Amino acid sequence: MRLLAIDSSAKAASSAILENGVLKGEFFIHTQLTHSQTLMPMVGDLLTNTCYHLHEMDGLAVAVGPGSFTGIRIGVAAVKGMAMAENKLCIPVSTLEAMAYQTDYINGLICAVMDARCNQVYNALFTAENGNITRLTEDRALSINQLEQELVQRKEPVFLVGDGADLCYNKMNIDRLLVSIVPEALRMQRASGVAKAAARKNPEEWVTAAQLMPVYLRPPQAERELKRRQGQQTLSD
Known about the structure:
The structure is a single chain. By secondary structure, the chain is α/β, with parallel strands linked by helices. 37% of the residues lie in helices and 29% in strands. The strands form two sheets. Strands 6, 7, 8, 9, 10 and 11 form a six-stranded mixed β-sheet that branches. Helix 3 crosses helix 7. The longest helix has 18 residues, at 69-86.
């Protein structure tokens, strides 16, 4: 099985091709350019340099969230367009799950964290054992303090992965935890993790381009601010 995967859920963007469990190529970029500028040129260069064509892909995988609202929309829209053009099925993948698959060399508790701002993180917990990833929690948005309390109760070594790893490590009381951060090369969200997670999905989890949708764990900041103002206005009436 040959998969093309992309991730644009955070500041970095990447694309990858996985064939029968072998990573054939991956392009990764972490600059100030927007994903709308970099993502599709990256996909084109990846296909060119691996000597593949889009129609040779069995499926198109994408990180559908959580993460940056704009970034997720760009990634989902890009995969929708390619899938419609080539009549391909899509594989939606949790960004947090994809990060866990980047650390499948570890045996232990994987804590995938993305900076959700306002002292919160997007998080999910997984166990990794001999290359097998098992999900322990659903994707959720919670405070760093809440996450710390949960990890303390588990009483086992924790491996942090994601763009929120440094944030959690610096804000948590590490004297209460056995915490490590995975190497920098594997820490950020990457399309290779998306591809690995997608390869483990059952066929019934594949969707059409029309069915592919972003997954947000909370409303955008503008929507939350509007509701806050409306609530204040209601109280003052």
